[in-house]
Write a structure and sequence with these properties.
The protein is of the alpha/beta class and about 280 residues long. The chain contains 11 helices and 9 strands. Helix 7 packs parallel to helix 8 and helix 8 packs parallel to helix 9. The protein is globular and about 45 Å long. Belongs to the HMG-CoA lyase family.
Amino acid sequence: MIKLIECPRDAMQGIPHFIDTAIKAAYINQLSEVGFDTIDFGSFVNPKAVPQMKDTEEVLSLLDLHHSKSKLLAIVANLRGAEDAGHFPEIDYLGFPLSISETFQQRNTNKSISEAFNELEEIQNLCEVKGKILVTYLSMGFGNPYGEEYSPEMVLNFVERLDQLGVKIISLSDTIGVANPALITELFETQIQAFPNIEFGAHLHSTRETIGEKVLAGLKGGCTRFDGALNGYGGCPMAKDDLVGNMATEVMVETLEKAGHDLKLNKRELKEAMKLTQFVFTEV
């Protein structure tokens, strides 16, 4: 079964103007009507680092989750954020960004990789106590722009360490949109065969023209969990090409349905959500 994870948090966090809390909540409420498996709705991080997400708790209080089948995911960058998120029973998943790149780990969470692993272990333990599931995003998983060493074997080594900590969901992340179909297929095939007890996801960035081939490459490698954002909003601020945003959900839906997958989405509600993006992400 294909799982689609819609990521309004990733789409919103880089928007320079502050999006009103009520607008955020209304948009996420609309997304919850579509039938996505999970909605990455907010983050519990330092508001100075990500000011757009400073109202995540308020947004959560405005969500109407009674009739939604979608689960909620919140991003955390340290144990304190995980403890804050852990107080809310509505949140099912905590997402933590771990990077293969030492440079990006420092830029993203102000920690070394070694420190990040220590933090991750504490968060994993907290999740087990609080009844949450940790999703680890393995960023720079397909290469990086810093000239650092990279290889598929490094990815395998990181996954092995995460497996030893009991992590059950790992999303391989192409932070700057450098992955090609061959590498995507290779990485997923290798990881899924080596660690059948782990659920692997794809958090890829892409220009609109190459989304379809990347989705199909992931499918070929055995991946059935895909992150996206309507209209492809968001992306890594370090990307040199400002067109390298998130995978546009509507393009992924079209690709997956053409490949024969029944996604069980409410197309009428999806169309309404698409209309809302123009209002949410455009400064008035």
